[in-house]
Design a protein that fits this description.
The protein is 37% helix and 21% strand. It has 7 helices and 7 strands; from the N terminus they run H-H-E-H-E-H-E-E-H-E-H-H-E-E. The mean pLDDT is 88. It is globular, with a radius of gyration of 16 Å. The chain has a single domain, classed as Rossmann fold (3-Layer(aba) Sandwich).
Length: 214
């Protein structure tokens, strides 16, 4: 069965919506998330070619670029890519930014040493789609895949579930257990290197590092 294209359920952004999304990111939260990314980068060689997908307006790409990585980006949203080009050009970056679908990237196998997929996996609605996304990331990665996800085993996730159950706030994200991720990656020949969180059992955002088995 063919994978559902990301465009079937992805949020679309016009230029104004993309700009507002960029401006809505709180500096303190951004710094905390980049600290989490920095911890995960300890497992990726500094000379690696890295693909950030979906790259959004380029904030993770900027962080990788300042650390010396050869980083490219891909995203389904053209307005987001326009913002990323503008943001990255100011930092002296030169590389590829392309419109690509996460579930059908179109790159040859093992095109990049590592891939990072940050703050999108929790939007994938079902196991079939999540497996398709992991399979495509693993297909394109020669070495490592860095994947963020929302853990159900945290105070913030349990609070969100309670609010949804009480209909105080509609559910906006899909939590995934680490054991479920191990199944997805294991079927692709990858193993867990490290699972990182801002604060285990408190914050729901995790960043897991996976590596192709030798």
């Amino acid at each position: 069965m063919a994978a559902i294209p990301m465009s079937a359920f992805a949020k679309t952004y016009d230029r104004e919506q993309a700009r507002r999304y960029q401006e809505s990111k709180k500096p303190r939260k951004h710094r905390a998330e980049m600290q989490l990314v920095e911890r995960a980068l300890a497992f990726v060689p500094r000379d690696a070619r890295v693909l950030d997908v979906p790259c959004g307006y380029g904030r993770v790409m900027q962080h990788l670029h300042t650390r010396g990585y050869r980083v490219s980006g891909a995203d389904l949203s053209e307005p987001m890519l326009e913002l990323a080009r503008a943001n990255l050009s100011a930092s002296g970056w030169s590389g590829a930014l392309e419109r690509r679908d996460l579930l059908a990237l179109g790159y040859p196998e093992r095109s990049f040493d590592a891939l990072i997929c940050f703050r999108v996996f929790h939007h994938l609605p079902d196991r079939e789609t999540r497996q398709a996304a992991v399979s495509e990331l693993c297909r394109v990665a020669a070495g490592q895949v860095l994947l963020s996800y929302i853990s159900p085993d945290s105070f913030s996730s349990r609070l969100a579930s309670l609010r949804a159950a009480l209909r105080l706030k509609p559910p906006g994200r899909h939590a995934t257990a680490l054991v479920e991720l191990q199944g997805y990656f294991g079927r692709c020949g990858f193993q867990l290197v490290r699972d990182l969180a801002r604060l285990h059992l408190v914050h729901s955002l995790h960043l897991s590092v996976w590596e192709r088995k030798r």
